[in-house]
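MODEL INPUT / OUTPUT PAIR
PAIR INDEX: 1
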Amino acid sequence: MTDSALERFDRLRVEPLMPVASRQGGFRGFWYSLQSIASRRQLLGLLIRRDIKARYKDSVLGLLWTLINPIVQLTVYYIVMGQFLGAARGIDNFAIYIFSGLTIYGLFSETLSGSTASIVANAGLVKKVYVPREIFPLATVGSALFTFAVQLGVLVLACIILGAAPFTWSIFYFIPSLMIVVVYGTALGLLLSALNVYLRDVQYLTQVLLMLAMWASPIVYGWTMVNSVFTQFSFPAWLLQVYTNNPVTLAVLGFHKAFWIDGTPADYPEGLAVRMVVAILIGVVLIWVFQRVFARLQGNFAQEL
């Protein structure tokens, strides 16, 4: 061993060890994590761009697939569900109704499925260098928002073409709907991405739950239909409230309120705006809780991967 190498080892021996992550709990640990992520926001931006580019790498159409996929999905649901199976009966301007619901649900689905697998997908980085592990699920949230922005433009353009431009005060329901999906997608993404490191079945279970969440939300059917079924069969009133206050259901209803101008007050539950605000506040608390769980589990990520 050379003299220069020995000198480096001597300097390292007396250098104090510094923790790479906060061991503090509660709000102080959460605040420290936020500061760590903010200090590496450039890396977060690079990961978001990498995810967007990698998604359509070596494809001829590239980013055009962000337009093709929702248009094909809209066409299939509109023809099969709306016309063949009769879901469009009683729902005016069914194309806008279903497309608005699919747009906001697509953001939630892409956010949750991508963030759940994000730590495992970035195993090479996790094992080699230290960065706040929360950056990886947050990067999938950013890339999902990019896809959502493109699809939202398609939705607005479709509304204008079909003569149903959503330029009313109800358009502001778009904001809490988006906040609900981002908040709950981030919270659940943090939790599931950490659990998926230890139990890889979580990412497959997430896909099943997302499929159930889609059909459990009023995307291809109306909320009024659910209300009438609960009334007809005398189901407990609290069960309808549980269904209605589901964050995905509230986000879909908010998007319908914003972009589906043919809706009437009877198509929505009472106090929709208040329900959405309460859901956002609960979601913010869940972000803190699940980030603290994430912080507890991340210590063994490298070993498990």
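PAIR INDEX: 2
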Amino acid sequence: MKNKLLLAILLLTTIINAQESDKKSYSFSLKQAIEHATKNNYSIQNANRDIEVAKKKKWETTTMGLPQINGSVNYQNTFEFQKQGAAANSFNPLADPNEITLLAFGTKHLGIGNLTLSQLIFDGSYLVGLQSAKTYLKISENAKEKTNQEIKEIVINAYGNVLLADESILIINKNKVVLEKILSDTKEIFKNGLIEEENVEQLQITLNSVNNALDNVTKQRVIALNMMKLLLGIDLENEVFLTEKLSSLTENNIDLQVLTSEFDVNKNIDYQIGKNMEESKKLMVKLEKSKELPSIGAQVNFGYNAFSNEFTFFNSDQKWSNYSNIGIGLNVPIFSSGARSSRVQQAKLELEKSQTQLKEKEQNLKLEHQKAKSDYEYSINQFQNAQSNLKLAERIESKQQIKFKEGLSSSFDFADAQKQLYTAQQEVLQAMLEIINKKATLEKILN
């Protein structure tokens, strides 16, 4: 029994070690995280596949104007012939002319082998199709670029959220240590009968709130880190470590020169996508117009056929008859009762709509740029203001702490000062995160 137990423990240990060895560990700066995401993010992987699909689609369209060769082999076994009626005296002059004779034509077995070479000579819709395939590829490439930019912005936000949680945990733990020391000292003073129990209870309430906040932030950090893993295309079971600090990242993202950067709407990916849509609508107009043009195609056929009342097609003495022909076809649209004209007009209206939407997009982007600049500038000012408020809150809390210890202020006054300090601390951290996020939004618009 003892040996079985040891064996089970050894087996369990082996399984756990194997699972641990399967886990991978990653360490990222913000730049490294963005680079990793642009290669491994799930949405970007599919965007890359969309580009490959567009390239294949472009080649598929191109091949429609290249020579096409098709072969076929057919076998027919006629077990009951279709009969044709004829006057009896058609083959027998002595027969009654009013009598009908039934005749069957053909052989029981028929084999046909055929090879066809076809070539499109001219088709207006094919030429438009080639242009459309190029536009489709460009749309896919721009869609991938937009996905890259969106993922970059989201990764920056997610990276900042993890750092925010880390800094919050450090600050709350620091506050907790200070508060526990004050609470312990206050309890001793209460035991000596120098203060009322209410002071102890008030501090305990504050400590409970701090512990609750710490528990919540710790859980939020796990969620934020898992979000990072998902964005980076990393399994949630693997470990990820961030090498940057929120303070240094904030400092690196304070750049007033970006506020003076000129906004060129033509460089914005959303505007480029709008131009793609306009181009696709132009091609639709061309396509409908091209349907009014004739199309020309040619083909060459080569084939063999054989007839037999017995299945002898694989015999060496089976006779095969060859045939071949060449042909050219011209298809000319003549009259459609106005249907083609109606389709052209519809395409033109769709083009006008896309041009109006592009103009609207241009104006919206200019407005978004103004807002992004304003938000970024405000985030910097808010950070500076939050830092100033934090210094004031620290001085107020320090003074109230001294007064409380000396019995010159109540626990309520001290608790208010602590809450004010904790709020100021979080406002500074949030302002730091806002600088990082607003800078990312502005750079995304500027491209």
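PAIR 2 NOTE: The mean pLDDT is 90.
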